Amino acid sequence: EVQLKESGPGLVQPSQTLSLTCTVSGFSLTDYSVHWVRQPPGKGLEWMGVMWSGGSTAYNSALKSRLSISRDTSKSQVFLKMNSLQTEDTAIYYCTRDGERAFDYWGQGVMVTVSS
Amino acid sequence: ETTVTQSPASLSMAVGEKVSISCKTSTDIDDDMNWYQQKSGEAPKLLISEGNTLRPGVPSRFSSSGYGTDFVFTINNVLLGDEGIYYCQQSDNVPWTFGGGTKLELK
What we know:
- The structure holds 2 protein chains of 2 kinds.
- Chain A has no helices and 11 strands.
- Chain A is mainly β.
- Chain A starts with a strand and ends with a strand.
- In chain A, 35% of the residues are buried.
- By secondary structure, chain B is mainly beta.
- Helices cover 0% and strands 50% of the residues of chain B.
- In chain B, strands 2, 4, 5, 6, 9, 10 and 11 form a 7-stranded mixed sheet that branches.
- In chain B, strand 7 and strand 8 (70-75) form a beta hairpin.
- The termini of chain B are far apart.
- At the A-B interface, strand 5 and strand 10 of A face strand 5 and strand 10 of B.
């Protein structure tokens, strides 16, 4: 069974760095790419970036200067790090699998609040 | 970057009616459009993928059409359980971009 699960702190202080982990099961990170998508409260979906199955990355240009995505294939984990957080970064953060160029499986999401 | 413009922003329909949602893209994306349903408090669910392909297990009441820059998502005979927010998303080029969403309410 394919599963993705996000984990990380629920509260981050302004200007600090967010670190999230997406732990996957039921598939290999070398076979499928994993994306990060976020959703501010009451708003729409924003694509953040991707760890391609081959190991390279791509980022939303609006976030590129602050965002880094990496992985540990041996642990089936994909990591997101974003620095200089502001209140506008308050959102639910999802990791999602890329199945033939569509997001076919999603994690439950993790709510991150940026507040002092 | 391809901009995706989705309309309408909200719909209020009666059970049994037909729902139509439009997405227009700023660049030609062939048929690289995906459609998702998001129910309250849940992650989005993929309903239709590129080439207007219905995903396994998704009822045939859901369908889509379109190519190039104009796309339409349709729900025939809408049911109470179809309430939620629907998103289109283009996968032709990075960054993959979403439409703004359509909130579907059932009367």
